[in-house]
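Worked problem 6 (solution included).
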Amino acid sequence: MTIVRRNTLNTTVSPSVSSPENLAEKVIEAERMHDVLLLLQNLINSEEATVKLILDCLYDVGSVNLINQKLRLKPLNRVMKLIARMSKPVFRTLALNWFKKNCPQLITNWLHTQVTFKSIQKKLEQVAVEVAELQPYPIPQRENLSQEIRNLRYQVRWLVGISIIAIAALGITTARLN
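Solution. The predicted structure is:
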């Protein structure tokens, strides 16, 4: 089953949309939402320390949960948690740049959807559903994909092993130098 959304532009012009009153309201609405965007950007710039603290908290919780979920071996789990703690400053820098660039617009769009008060029925009318019979991959292609997946998993295991050895060597070298 494939869900295809129609373009959000409405091809039929209803009389209520083209009235000068509604056009003026739409212009005012667009200006006010732009004001919200600017205010959010200003808030993020002025409260950068708070944003950093929020991102730190999210990183701490998310990294531990992800490592616990993906790595069941205790020694490997502990090593990865140490690596995650050491990589936190890099994450903070990258996440802060992403946050400043994307979040004001995302938050503004979300707030705009909250104040438009469109009913669920109207949203359902905008979505067209097209049912298409899905063709599975041919058997040779499926085998190629499963072989590729096996090869990738093998490479990941090697990389994890090499990373652990490199980190252990770095730790031993650091310990001997001290």
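Discussion: The two ends are 62 Å apart (CA to CA).
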